[in-house]
UniProtKB/TrEMBL annotation:
Heterodimer of SbcC and SbcD. Residues 232-259 form a coiled coil. This is Nuclease SbcCD subunit C. Keywords: Coiled coil. It comes from Actinophytocola xanthii. GO terms for biological process: double-strand break repair. It comes from the Bacteria. The lineage of its organism: Bacteria, Bacillati, Actinomycetota, Actinomycetes, Pseudonocardiales. InterPro entries: P-loop_NTPase, Rad50/SbcC_AAA. The keyword Amino-acid biosynthesis does not apply. GO terms for molecular function: ATP hydrolysis activity.
Length: 362
């Protein structure tokens, strides 16, 4: 990781905007009297990456980040890592009750075409977001390959510990170096390696002892052992087949047992059935109903037969049009016959009148 630019405002003892350009240098030294703010610059770098500073004590103690009498602070670090250029930016704000909150935390991959000394807002405008909020510290650790603890032990030594290291006695210096570099981890690794080596040595000695007990192994012994191994392999195959068959039989037995239980449950339910008290009356009513159905069936058959005969008789009748003509002719004949009878009656009456008149004239 190579820092290129550190920008902060309202952080620690720096109330005003501060822009530290590091892109054009390979080495740099922070000099100044005690209290000038050298450590605050290093704190700002560490805070931009991990959101905390070693000398604050607790990792979540961010109240000391704000400069006195300011309510907001901004810290941003532009750096190169893993072949890319990134920016880690954090903003804090103090509320009306004096409690400090993280307003924004972000990690972005920057466009390499934008110079690192450009305005931070312009740099972030074309950036590609990588992480936000609480995920920034984890993303930084993954990007750099080291977490906060390793960073403060291997890259940034806590304030005062380096002077303590230079002035300490050789024995104390070694202990302090173990603390600073977390060398105790390697001691634990070495101890575990020695324990594993001890266990491996014991196994080797036991194996050697057993080989010595076996003595000289002849070709006949090897051949016999080979035959025995083959026999055991055949036996193993047979046992596997038997186990598989046993599993199949067990499955079939389980299914048969389940069916038997179901049948037993059905039998229990059938045994619980009782003949209804009105079953005899119901049988009588059913017999009467059957007889009625039979009678009605016979009547229906007779009706269907009569209907069929009627249809057949009607089919043998003349055409209705002919019948109509016959009916009209009969009506006309009846009318003519009536007129004839009236004419005959009139003729008889006239003849009688004529006779009467003739008699009177005579």
């Amino acid at each position: 990781m190579r820092p290129l630019r550190l920008v902060f405002e309202g952080f620690g003892s720096y109330r005003d905007h501060t822009d530290v350009q590091l892109s054009d240098v390979d080495f740099f030294v922070l000099t100044g009297p005690t209290g000038a703010g050298k450590s605050t610059v290093i704190d700002a770098l560490c805070f931009a990456l991990y959101g905390t500073v070693p000398r604050w004590g607790k990792t979540n103690a961010i109240r000391d980040a704000l400069a006195p009498s300011v309510n907001e602070c901004t810290v941003g670090l532009v750096f190169e890592a893993s072949g890319g250029r990134y920016a880690a930016v954090r903003q804090l704000r103090r509320d009306a009750r004096g409690k400090v909150h993280t307003r924004e935390a972000r990690l972005d991959r920057l466009d390499p075409s934008v110079p690192p000394d450009a305005e931070l807002a312009a740099v972030l405008e074309v950036a590609q977001p990588v992480a936000e909020g609480e995920r920034v510290s984890g993303a930084v650790a993954e990007l750099l390959g080291i977490g906060y603890e390793q960073f403060t032990q291997c890259v940034v030594l806590p304030q005062g510990r380096f002077a303590e290291f230079l002035q300490a006695k050789p024995g104390d210096r070694q202990d302090l170096l173990i603390q600073l570099l977390a060398y105790a981890v390697y001691e634990d690794v070495g101890q575990r390696a020695r324990e594993r080596a001890k266990v491996a040595t014991g196994k080797l000695e036991m194996a050697t002892k057993r080989l010595d007990e076996l003595g000289t192994v002849t070709d006949d012994v090897v051949a016999a052992a080979t035959r025995r191994a083959r026999e055991l392999e055949d036996l193993t195959s047979a046992v596997d087949d038997a186990v598989e068959e046993m599993a199949t039989l067990r499955q079939r037995w389980t299914e048969a047992n389940e069916k038997a239980r179901a049948a037993a449950a059905v039998l229990t339910e059938l045994d619980a059935l009782r003949r209804p008290a009105d079953l005899v009356d119901l049988s009588t009513r059913l017999a009467v109903a059957d007889e009625e159905i039979e009678n009605r069936t016979e009547a229906r058959v007779a009706a269907e037969k009569s209907e069929a005969e009627t249809e057949a008789a009607r089919a043998e009748l003349p055409d209705p049009a002919v019948l109509a003509r016959w009916r009209d002719a009969h009506a006309r004949a009846t009318a003519l016959h009536a007129r004839l009878e009236r004419s005959r009656a009139a003729a008889v009456t006239a003849e009688q009148a004529e006779r009467t008149a003739a008699a009177e004239l005579a």
